[in-house]
Structure formats: C-alpha cells, structure tokens
Amino acid sequence: MEIRSKIILIYGPTASGKSDFAIKLAKKVDGEIVNADSMQVYKELKIISARPHKKEYKKIKHHLYGFWSVKKKFSTGDWLRLAKLKITDIKKRKKIPILVGGTGLYFKALTDGLVKIPNIPLKLRKKVRNLHKDLGPKKFFLRLKKLDPISINFINPLDSQRVIRAYEIKLYTKKSMYEWFKNTKSDFEKGDFFRIYIDCSRENLIKRINVRAKNMIENGAILEIKKFIKLKVSKSKTASKAIGVREIQDFLNKNIDKSELTQKISIKTRQYAKRQTTWARGHMLNWNRIKSERLNNFLKKI
Hints:
- With 302 residues, the chain is of the alpha/beta class.
- 50% of the residues lie in helices and 10% in strands.
- It has a 6-stranded parallel sheet, sandwiched between helices.
C-alpha cells in the first residue's frame, strides 16, 4: 500500500482512537502529526479537549497543539493557513505530514479549498435557527427546498447544521451555497491525499466516551475550568462552547453533583460524536473507511 508519498488525513468521531493510531502510523512511515481539531489548538484547554499529552508523543513531532489563546478568535481560515505552512515544512524535511482530528470543516477546507462566503449577521443567523427549532427538521428542510432547490441535492436532510447553513446563505447572499462552493479550489490535487476515516461501532464508542469522561474529571478537568473561568472568556468565543465548560460550571455552582457531571459530559460527547459521523456520511464517501478493531492490521500492510 503506497501512502508514503501522500499527505495522510485521519478523521473519526471523538474517542475513536485517532491520536494513538496517528502516532503508530507516524512511527511506521517517518511522519509528523498536525492537529486538525478546533478545540485542541487552545493552550488553556488541555484536559477537556483530550489533547495528546507530551509523554504520549513518543518522539514524534506534533504541530498546532495547544498554541492559541482561548481569548482570541481562531477560524478555519487561520487553521488552513498554518496547516499549509506545516505541510510544506514537513515535506521539505522529507517527512510525511499526518493530519489528525475531528473537525470536518478543517479537512474540507484543505481538500476542497475555503469558501469565501460573506459574514452573515448574527441577528439573521439566530432568526434562522429559531425557525428551524419552531418548524422541526422535516418542515424546515421543505422550506429550504423552496428557497434553494439546488442545495438539497447535496445535503443529507438529517444534517441539521448544514441544512441551516444552506438556508441562511441563500437568504442573505441570494446565491446557493453550492454556487459558492463550485468556484472554490484547493491548493492541492486530489491525488495528494490518502484519506482515512476511523469507523468505530456505536457500542464501542460509547464505552470509550464514558471512560474518557470519567478520566477527565479524575485528572484535573475541574481545576482546568476553574482557571478558565478566571480568564473571563466571552461566551461567544469558540473555546467557551467546548464540551465540559458549561457542565463543570454547573457543578461548581452546585447545580449538579459529580456523578451527574460525568454523565452530562458523556451525553454531550456522544451527541457530538453522532454529528461527526453524520458529517462523514455527507462529506467523506471517498475516504478509506477502516474499522477501529482493524487499525493494527492496516499498519502491518504498509
């Protein structure tokens, strides 16, 4: 299997074992790892973002982990610019770039290019989200069909996030989201990438998520969020929306006990994993799907 000349991309739902697999793969192909997870860029959110610990690096270079302040905005465009620089640098040193994470938009921006859609006013975005909530997914999708018949050919009706995005873009710009997309190009060729999607069974994933949530609480997540609260980060910032922030705040305010805290973090993480899986179904049909229990067999074939 020839992947040593490629830029390797590894995506999968949270807790599916991406980081461990990436390290094993990097050792096998002489690679270096680049973060493609929107929460693991923040230096103050090490534990709740499940950022790999430096002890786990095993002499493999890791890039774009824990380097950005939670107080500063970090966009997909920021990540793409930095990731391209890292890829270029890694390849110059005759190493293999391995990008790993669970942020689908990052991978899409890398492989397809970044769509330069005008910023949509927050007031309009809230209005669209409230409409989706009032109508429900099925009726809202029918509204989108009338507003933007082009987009429904490319969207999974169950992908609420994307359905809402298509609606607000057409409403504000008067152009279909896919009219914007077709004029967007990547700096790379399709053949430059080897794409891996880690397919973890729901049952196994739930077990892994439950263990992770418990370990987070035991390993200092509460103290981490205490420090985060002192920074007075705006609620509008991406870091404030990380799973665990609000739940730990509720615990600190004595609204829930520790067992409820662990349970709430597990539930939120499972919901997030489901959204990641939905994203993959809609955007990653051409990726190499590898069952999590077969990852070691894959490594042996390289």
